[in-house]
Structure formats: structure tokens, C-alpha cells
């Protein structure tokens, strides 16, 4: 597993520049995926895929920091639930990878079964753009999915809004 990031400066500039240009355009319901090398090419025209010569953890850190620097978005970060069950004997380096990923992303990480994440991504990709950054990672179930959400509106605020909308119309607005 190579973790050297972006052996070619031009390639590094290209994907990082693409990310920098897309982040102001992206918002709630867009996705950014930092994928392992076996991640398939998808046929949906709303999905852009870039093959990057970059270590997967390094790319994850850069994407996470770039999203964090944007005031209008935040990310729900998903990894496959299967990742916790991949054995070292089947995928050399998986234990080290899991530890380093948890250090890099901490409490932001959420786990869901792989098929559930893919279903969420596919549903969003029907209407919203997705950027897939395909890395040189050769360990299974290591793809990291960033589902973008509004950075200045919370799920709790949305729930209160929906409750207020469902209330009888004669109540005054607060």
C-alpha cells in the first residue's frame, strides 16, 4: 500500500484544482468520494471520476480539510461497515490503515454497510453531481464517502421547520 501522495506535481495540481473549483459549486446532496483503486467507473453522467496518483489517506485528509474550510458545507463521512471486519491476513496493512483513518477523521466517521452507502450515493447522483477521486489504494473496503450537507443549517433546525410547516396554519410564526 503506497501512501506517497501525488508523485507527479502536475497530477496533484489537477485534482486539487478540480476540487477547489467544485467546492464553491457543491452543496447539500453533492458527494465527494475518495476511492480505492478497484472502485468501478460509473455510467451516470453526473458522476465525474478522476484517477489520482495519490495515497488514499493523504487524499482523504486533503478533501476533509478542504471541505472544512468552506463555510457553506459540511460533510457526513461514511466508510463501509465491512472495513472493521477485514482481517490482516486477507489484506496486509488493514489494521494500520484503520488506526490512521480514525486518527485523521475521528468522530466524523460513520459506518454503514457498503450497499447502503452505494444506494444513497446512486440516489443522489440521479439529480446531483458526484466527484470520485480514485486513488492507488489496494486494500478492500477503504473508500471514504463525503456526503455534503449545508454548513449553516442543522438537521435539528430542519426538523423544527418541518414541524412548524405541518402545524395548523392559524398559529403565529415565532
How much strand? 15-25%
Given helix and strand content, the structural type is alpha/beta
Helix content: 25-40%
Total helix count?
Answer: 5
Taken in chain order, the helices and strands follow as: HEEHEHEHEEH
Rounded Rg = 18 Å
Total beta strand runs: 6
Q: Find the CATH topology.
A: RbsD-like fold
Major sheet attributes: 6 strands, mixed
Catalogue the unreliable spans. 1-11
How does this model look, in words?
This protein is of the alpha/beta class and 174 residues long. The protein has a single domain, classed as RbsD-like domain (RbsD-like fold), CATH 3.40.1650. Helices cover 36% and strands 20% of the residues. It contains 5 helices and 6 strands, in the order H-E-E-H-E-H-E-H-E-E-H. It has helices at 9-22, 56-68, 94-105, 114-125, 155-166, and strands at 31-35, 47-51, 73-80, 109-112, 130-134, 144-150. Helix 2 (56-68) packs parallel to helix 3.
Please name the defining characteristics of this protein:
174 residues, 6 strands, globular, disordered N terminus
Brief overview, please?
Helices cover 36% and strands 20% of the residues. It has 174 residues and is an alpha/beta fold.
Topology:
Elements: H1 9-22, E1 31-35, E2 47-51, H2 56-68, E3 73-80, H3 94-105, E4 109-112, H4 114-125, E5 130-134, E6 144-150, H5 155-166
Parallel strand pairs: 1-5, 2-5, 3-4
Antiparallel strand pairs: 1-6, 3-6
Helix pairs in contact: 2-3
